[in-house]
Amino acid sequence: MPMSAHGSKFKGFTLIELLVVLAIVAIASSLVVVSMRDSGQALLEEEAERLGALLESARTEARASGITVRWEPASADATDGAAFRFPGLPRSTQLPTRWLRDGVTAEVVGARALVLGPEPILPPQRVVLRRGEHSVMLASDGLAPFSRALPAAPAP
Q1: What CATH number has the domain bearing residue 99?
Q2: Which region, left, alpha or beta, applies to residue 129 given φ > 0 means left and ψ of -120 to 50 means alpha?
Q3: How many folded domains does the chain comprise?
Q4: Which residues of 103-119 are buried (b: 16+ CB within 10 A; e: fewer)?
Q5: pLDDT digits (tens, 9 = 90+) for 15-51
Q6: Residue at 103 is within a domain
Q7: Nearest-5° angle of CA 117, CA 91, CA 115?
Q8: Which of 4, 51, 56, 105 is most buried, by CB atoms within 10 Å?
Q9: Is 19 inside a domain boundary?
Q10: pTM higher than 0.90 for the full model?
Q11: CB 140: neighbour CB atoms within 10 A?
Q12: Is the residue at 110 inside a domain?
């Protein structure tokens, strides 16, 4: 077979075409890795964000009304289906009392309940949420809003 002046008799992929294919494969594989993030931890983090927003709503109401409001996890023998409560909050202020997903538990660190107001400066407080083997800690230094915190390292 005769060869043309500008190429060989074999046609193949150009370097640009191969680089485009490799880029597409790299992007697709990175999307798969990101989507495979531990869904149990992601669900618990979503619950923690929601609880942080609820705590700040109750804190704002406590300060505005001048009333003492607390947040406490419901006891295991609660019959009303509530997973947590806001004692002291007026009935006119309705906040959710259940987790979005089953299996979430909460424990206030070092106390029975979180104090949300009415004082503008509160003691530092922490609550740990658990779901299966996953856990997330929410904390406030007494001034800042409740947000995710790293657990404290155990003492040596």
Answers
A1: 3.55.40.10
A2: beta
A3: 1
A4: ebebebeeeebbbbbbe
A5: 888 889 899 999 998 888 776 656 888 889 999 999 9
A6: yes
A7: 20
A8: 51
A9: no
A10: no
A11: 22
A12: yes
**pLDDT tens digits, 41-64:** 888 999 999 999 999 999 999 999
Calpha distance 56→148 (Å, rounded) = 13
Residue 23 token pair: 């880029």
Handedness of CA 83, 84, 87, 93 (dihedral sign): negative
Q: Residue 108 belongs to what domain range?
A: 39-149
Quickly state the pLDDT bin for 3 (edges 50, 70, 90): low
Is residue 48 exposed (0-12), middle (13-18) or buried (19+ Cβ within 10 Å)? buried
The string of DSSP codes covering the chain is -PPPTTS-S-----HHHHHHHHHHHHHHHHHHHHHTS-HHHHHHHHHHHHHHHHHHHHHHHHHHHT--EEEEEPPTT-SS--SEE-TT--TTS----S-SSTT-EEEETTSSSEEEESSSS---EEEEEEETTEEEEEEE-SSSPPEEEPPPPPP-
